[in-house]
Amino acid sequence: MPIFTNTAALWGTLIFLGLFAIYIYRRRSRKIVVSSIMFFAKSKSTAEGGQKLYKLQTPLIFFIEFLIFIFFILALANPMALHKGNLIPLTIVLDDSLSMTAGDNFSARNLGLDYLKNNIFNKSYYRITLVVAGVRPKLIGRRDLTVNEAEMLLRNWTCESASSNIMAAVSQGIEMVSDDGLIMVITDHLNEKSISENIKWISFGKARDNISITAANRSANDRTDRCFFEITNFSSKAKVVNAEIVDITKGNILEKINDKIDAKASRRFVIKTKEQSDTIKVSIKNDEISYDNEVVLLPIKYNKLKVDIDVSDKDLYNAIKKAILSSDLAILSQDSPQLFITDKKNTFVESATTQLVITNATQSLVIAKHFASDKEHFLTSDLPFDNAIWVADSNFKQIGKSILMAGKLPLICIDEESSYKNTIYLNYSFNFSTFHQSNFWPVFFYNVQDWTLKHLSGPTEFNYRSGSQIEVIAEKNSYNLEMIKQSKKSEKKDSYVNNGKAVFVAGIPGLYEIKDGEKTYLVSVNLCSYEESDLTEARSNEVIPEIITDNSMSHFDSVKWWFIMIAFVLLALHQWMIYRRRSGYAF
Amino acid sequence: MITVDNNILKSAELSGQRFFFNLSSRFSGTQGGGKFGSKTGQSLEFIEHREYQPGDDIRHVDWSAVARSDKLAIKLFREEITPHLDLLLDLSKSMAINKEKFDAVTALTAILSKVAYNSGYTFYSWLIKDMCRKVEPTNLPINKWKDFVANSNNNTGKTLCEFPPKLKTGAVRILISDLFWNQEPLGVLRRLSDGAAAVVIIQLVSKQDLNPEVYGNMRIIDSETGEALELICDESVLSEYKTNLNSHRQYWKECCTKSGAVFCFVEAENLLKDFVPDELIKNEILVLGY
After folding, report:
1. Could you list the residue range(s) of the whole structural domain that residue B247 is in?
2. B145 and B251 inside one domain
3. How far is Cα A62 from Cα A58, in angstroms, rounded to an integer?
4. How many C-beta neighbours within 10 Å does residue A281 have?
5. Considering all CA atoms of chain B, what is the largest pairwise distance in Å, rounded to the nearest integer?
């Protein structure tokens, strides 16, 4: 099917009206039946119709004349056809974010689908590559699909991502197409940046009012959990928000919210619950755009760290014990301790994930100030050692990575064999040093416990904001973890364990099960995205750009002569039809 | 569909009673019959004496007259004839292009049948459609003739040539038609004049045929073939039509002359005025009764 590059010429088809008017308003013949027409046979007849075609002449001749005009007009419209069957490479970048679904039947996704079906998939001259722009760009199917294949694969464009990294997808698209290839972006917002002529940015968005939950978090202390929510009104006028906070484990409504929120304003809500093992859900009841009306906060599950202190110096033991217990993160236990603190060399506990070895000085060296600490490391960040006097063993040899040094002498080293076995070496002579007398001694031990906790198997958190990374500390012998969406069991993601951790991207909001061998963890991913909820900036193109560019025209040849030839053939047929032959008579 | 008008029929029959055929001389040479011919023959009806001329049959010499007058005289007797009329009627659709034309067909048929009766003719009627069918019984009144309707799409001339009727030898044959068919007249006349005592061709046309009301953009449709012609008609077209019509009539006349047939032209509307077939009288086919 050729395409027409001079579409203005198509207005010429209006000539049909003139032709039609001529046929409608022409002088019509009056019928008369005579005994015989043979005495009229030598008379001149009107210049239309043939003897064989009296009954059909008007519609047929009209139709042929109309076709002649049409073919000449189409020739004027400069039709182009693909050169030797070469197809135009087209990469379609599809915005996969949730905001594309706002508006139900008239959502940007549905309008985009209609556009693609009516303007792209009905033309056979494209070879299509589909890239879904979610949190990360993803290729659908393979490269260079036929239009039919691409149409079939569009079902994978679900628009469930918490955000869309369109520019990353466009970059991926650019890498996949040749210089004269086209990139089309289907999204719901206009692009303010000027981009290449080959990139067609087509937006089907519409500004809409929306109320959404833009932040949610849950934290716990010893007795109560604190749940925090932020509801934002993305509308041009103030609105009353009807929302419920529900303990879905017990089925209790904890609080009903019926507050007015100003335009473009947020309201924060905090609720404390003693039910630390219950799941809390917040839902907005009076908003049509549903994807951001609900958040689920799972209980923060962790058990207290088991710490065993095997230190011969009684004062040191007491100082450590006091620091450990003050943190409220741990209990002292000799039964399978997870943190083992000792001053004896070569004493190891199998169950301990982290072992803290305190080295007494054999050749003491007093150090005050001029400490060099690793500011990035979890254990030493923000800890000012400069106010303490540190007596250390000058013969201490560095093991692993040094995170606190005095000159070339390592004071704290970490030997990270794996995420399941870390040893912290503390080059510290307790009897002569003053660090344990400072306020930062318990802070240091808090860090050690917290760091140990983070190395225990399981997710590092249970409630995530969409788009963030879900880190899971794997079991000792696990190599592969699986994340399954609870509402859609077929949607599985695998992640290989690397350095004891598996990482997933919380792309699509919902509840997920993470399977690590026999253990299963439940995590919640909540949208909480200003970008996806704020639809006030959504816009459509005023004029949808032409897809075919001048560069792409190199794939086409002009075929106007086809149309001109057909018109001439029809013209000849027309002349043959209206040519009249006379038969002879006896007189 | 135009059918027989009984009033027309009655008027025509009344008119026909006044006329006789003037065709007795045409039956010369026929042997025997119930009627006297106009010439001398072999009957017992004496006409006159005539002086003997060389070549006369000596057996006809009236010896008594010779004795009385001293001159050789022979007796002349009247001839006996059996006159018959075959009336052929063209029943193509054009013969009923309007009521007047078909009424004229009916009137002429009635007049001629009555004239045949008056003149002592036996009389057969033939209806020409896709083939020629004789009306039987032959004495059936015209308004009871079966299928006496002008509804045929056939070319009458072609039917006459390809399916000729079994006409009686030595009879008078009269064809009533508008002759608006495309067939060589000589061929038709040859068929009709073969073994005939006389052939009369009566061209019956209506005023509409002579002067059709066509003016402006016309779609002219042939009543028989349905063939149509788109024309812008003006005086020149009408004039050309009349010229063609006259040429056609003239050609038939010439062919009739060549074949020894009599050609008569009858205008339907004129005939229906007084039911007097002037053209037949003028051509001495009919004479008024005495």
Report:
1. 6-23+83-288
2. yes
3. 6
4. 16
5. 87
Which helix (H) or strand (E) segment holds residue B208: the answer is helix B207-210
The correct answer on CATH 3.30.70.270 for the domain covering A458-526 is no
Same domain flag for B62 and B168 = no
Distance from CA of A581 to the nearest CA of B (A): 12
Q: Does any CB of chain B come closer than 8 Å to the CB of residue A581? A: no
Q: Are residues B58 and B107 in the same domain?
A: no
Q: Is residue B260 part of a domain?
A: yes
CATH architecture of A83-207+537-549: 3-Layer(aba) Sandwich (3.40)
Q: Is the pLDDT of residue A445 over 50?
A: yes
- pLDDT tens digits, residue range A393-444? 888 888 888 888 888 888 889 887 766 678 898 888 888 888 888 888 888 8
The answer to whether the Cβ–Cβ distance between B219 and A587 falls below 8 Å is no
In chain A, the residue whose alpha carbon lies closest to the alpha carbon of B97 is A35
Number of domains in chain B: 2
Q: Which two tokens stand for residue A293?
A: 């009306």
pLDDT tens digit string along B140-162? 899 899 889 999 999 999 999 99
Smallest CA–CA separation between A14 and chain B, in Å? 29
The backbone torsions φ and ψ at residue A532, rounded to the nearest 5 degrees and listed phi first, read: -80, -25
Chain B (235-264) residues lying within 8 Å, Cβ to Cβ, of chain A? 237, 240-241, 244-245, 247-248, 251
- Give yes or no for a contact between A433 and A426, defined as CB atoms under 8 angstroms apart: no
- A40 interaction partners in chain B (CB closer than 8 Å): 220, 229, 231, 237, 240-241, 244
B119, B88: one domain: yes
Asked if B248 and B274 sit in the same domain, the reply is yes
Pure H helices in A137-282: 147-153, 166-176
User: Is the predicted pLDDT of residue A56 greater than 50, yes or no?
Assistant: no
CATH superfamily of A210-301: C2 domain (2.60.40.150)
Closest A-chain CA to B209: A35
